[in-house]
């Protein structure tokens, strides 16, 4: 894998992560910040995918396009080979984004005012999708123990027992804390949700990013009976294709798939994007070696953080995702001060932890799918900022 950054250090391109206005809006300044705050790989993407896109662009034909069966087959071949998950008997629907799938299922499976359970600190969009649909965010916070983050299953059972709480959005692997939930943990969740008729929407968009020896268990692979579920997948996080907009929704329940597809037809959400079709198949057919290299790079960068982070900053070592969850609580800074200090003193744009829920206060998230020299630069920035802090 090339170690040249895809987003240059201080770029002036259209990457959201590096957009000066966005940076200034979030971090108070933009100039000279190292942007490691958005969850995407900041390295050269899989050459097979780039080649497929260039070839598609060169075809001169961009009209309406069918999605040949080989495209979804590529996904299921990949799932079988990498995650021992066989799609036989499952319903697979195409969706432009995870957010689209989550929004449509909230709308279709819950009523206004009903509760959707989240496990904060968790990916920011879920809360907005629930609230903007007039549903209630019900919090089942993760618990940080000496052995890392755990689910509070007792609290989950209590929340699930309330008949107005109809859905759980599970994040597996979990953004931002990096847990790859075990089969045993997922089975407990399934049992609780089955008992109380709570629908499980498992967002598994980071599923390919379990860091060996951790192994990703797709929620739908457990074969538990009685729980109603769907899961989101796709190449967008793994292969840096979020801007290409092509994901999948998988469920074993024909009724759920039909509800989703009907709403998708009403809104024309199921139209194929010619570039997405090309990139999707290329990623799943030929991106395996690139992904293995990416995971090696992530492991190397995590080791560097473990070894070299200043003493006052603690890495919550992730089992999956390319996101490092950094604990700054020893510095005793309040929420606005921490963000400001990271930008102004460490010259870093990181996602402040409170974006993911109040449990994230005092933490920040750093993308580590980046050239090792950038992670070293980030560590040096943090070390300098700590050294310059007044006693
Ligand atoms: C857990 C998780 N789900 C969903 C998304 C976003 O997916 P989309 O852009 O397809 O809505 C992200 C992006 O970082 C994410 O981390």
Any overview of this molecule?
The protein has a seven-stranded mixed β-sheet, sandwiched between helices. 38% of the residues lie in helices and 15% in strands. A hairpin with a 2-residue loop joins strand 5 and strand 6. Residues 2-12 have low confidence and may be disordered. It is built from twelve helices and 15 strands. The chain is globular. The longest helix has 21 residues, at 288-308. The protein has two domains: 16-44 and 288-387, Aspartate Aminotransferase, domain 1; 51-286, Type I PLP-dependent aspartate aminotransferase-like (Major domain) (Aspartate Aminotransferase, domain 2), CATH 3.40.640. It has helices at 20-27, 47-57, 69-83, 98-109, 125-132, 153-161, 183-196, 254-266, 274-286, 288-308, 335-344, 372-387; strands at residues 34-35, 91-95, 115-118, 136-139, 143-145, 148-150, 165-171, 199-203, 229-233, 247-251, 314-316, 323-327, 348-349, 351-352, 363-367. The chain has 391 residues and is of the alpha/beta class. Helix 2 (47-57) runs antiparallel to helix 9 (274-286), helix 4 runs parallel beside helix 5 and helix 6 (153-161) runs parallel beside helix 7 (183-196). The N and C termini lie far apart (42 Å). Bound molecules: pyridoxal-5'-phosphate.
């Amino acid at each position: 894998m090339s170690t040249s950054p895809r987003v240059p250090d201080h770029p002036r391109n259209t990457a959201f992560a590096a957009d000066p206005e966005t940076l200034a809006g979030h971090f108070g300044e933009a100039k000279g910040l190292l942007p490691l705050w958005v969850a995407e790989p900041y390295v050269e993407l899989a050459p097979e995918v780039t080649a497929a896109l260039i070839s598609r662009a060169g075809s001169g034909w961009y009209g309406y396009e069918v999605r040949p069966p080989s495209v979804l087959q590529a996904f299921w071949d990949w799932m079988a080979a990498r995650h021992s998950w066989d799609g036989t008997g499952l319903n697979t629907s195409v969706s432009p984004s995870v957010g689209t799938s989550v929004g449509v299922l909230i709308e279709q499976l819950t009523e206004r005012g009903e509760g959707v359970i989240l496990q904060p600190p968790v990916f920011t969009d879920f809360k907005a999708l629930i609230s903007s649909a007039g549903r209630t965010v019900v919090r089942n916070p993760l618990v940080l123990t000496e052995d890392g983050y755990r689910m509070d299953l007792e609290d989950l059972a209590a929340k699930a027992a309330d008949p107005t709480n109809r859905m759980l959005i599970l994040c597996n692997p979990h953004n931002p804390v990096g847990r790859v939930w075990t089969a045993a943990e997922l089975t407990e969740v399934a049992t609780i949700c089955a008992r109380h008729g709570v629908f499980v929407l498992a967002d598994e968009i980071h599923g390919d990013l379990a860091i060996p020896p951790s192994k990703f268990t797709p929620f739908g692979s457990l074969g538990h009976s009685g729980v109603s579920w769907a899961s989101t997948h796709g190449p967008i996080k793994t292969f840096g294709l979020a801007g290409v907009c092509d994901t999948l929704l998988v469920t074993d329940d024909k009724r759920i798939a039909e509800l989703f597809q009907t709403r998708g037809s009403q809104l024309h959400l199921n139209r194929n994007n010619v570039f997405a079709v090309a990139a999707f198949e290329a990623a799943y057919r030929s991106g395996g070696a690139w992904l293995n290299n990416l995971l090696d790079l992530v492991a190397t960068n995590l080791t560097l953080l473990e070894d070299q982070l200043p003493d006052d900053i603690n890495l919550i070592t992730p089992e999956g995702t390319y996101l490092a969850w950094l604990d700054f609580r020893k510095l005793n800074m309040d929420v606005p001060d921490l963000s400001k200090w990271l930008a102004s003193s460490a010259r870093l744009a990181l996602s402040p932890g409170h974006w993911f829920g109040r449990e994230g206060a005092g933490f920040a998230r750093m993308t580590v799918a980046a050239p090792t020299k950038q992670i070293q630069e980030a560590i040096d920035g943090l070390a300098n900022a700590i050294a310059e802090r007044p006693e």
